User: Fold this.
Amino acid sequence: MKLAHWSLHVYRLRYAREITWAHAAESSGDYALLTLAADNGLTGIAEGVIKPTRTGVSARSLAASLETVVLPQLHNLNLNDKEAVSRALARIPENRLAKAMADNACWVLRAAAAGQPLWRLLGGKREVELAWMLTRQPPARMAAEAGEACARHGFRHIKVQAGQGRETDLRTLAEVRAAVGPEVSLMVDANGSYGRAEAAGYVQALADAGVSVAEDPCPLAADEQFEALQRASPIPILVDLACASSQDAELYAGRGAQALAAKPARVGLSEARAIDAVAASRGARTALAVYYESAIGSIISLSLAGALASPRPLPASHSFFLLLGAQATRQLPEIRGGRLALPEEPELERLVDWAAVKRLKI
Assistant:
């Protein structure tokens, strides 16, 4: 199964409301859909997100990277040979997003060739537990949204995007807790917003507020300070921004990390599996983490959720696609009781709404 031709489609998906991240406020997101067509007539797809200050690419630089650096390494390879593809991509320095997209498209292609849905090929389960992604807003609005999400979709986990200042964060948690009740678990992602010197006090305050996991409370490094922070913390410190490879995972696991993030849309399914293997070998928890995916990207990433090897994996945070006002898929995956049902379709290319891709092209 060799590469016959490929294409890249770039389009803009509006959000249902303006979303404030740690790095920007946005009313839409730019997405790239890669297709790899094999010589057997099957097609693999992958989604990438274009955010120059987050993913580090523009549409033109991503296309150039794929055309001149990444995809030439796959010519004459059997794309069904995951080890050969991984070795070829590993030889390429940098170009993280382009490599992740190529890797994910190859996995989707393998599932199509096997006549199995991707989640089954990876050894996973069709239904996966999700957490609601609660982005930065005034505390009262965040509480109202959390309550609505739990009532409408049955979420039992909330991932709170924090970093609005310690007092505001704690007020938000109190209001969210009042809105969702005691049975819903709260995780907090501060996106490295606080200084390393204040991280221990901040994490303790989160634990006192009933938070179960603290993600990136400050800029993290795999050093003695991180080791001391995790040792003193009553809850796991989830390493996200600084965990972009299995090598990173090894470094943090060696410093006592209790939770490691794996983002298939950022590093590829193969590297995400390697990060999970590190977590499993060290008794750490894996968080299958969102990377701004739309519905089609979420389906690809979440195919790994049910196959994670680490003990007690954290609920995946891929509910973000529900905040988009437009999609490039024909139908949204169904969420009931806080669990998303992945499609049985082996050929995920069939789920793409190509008319929408063309209409939303930029």
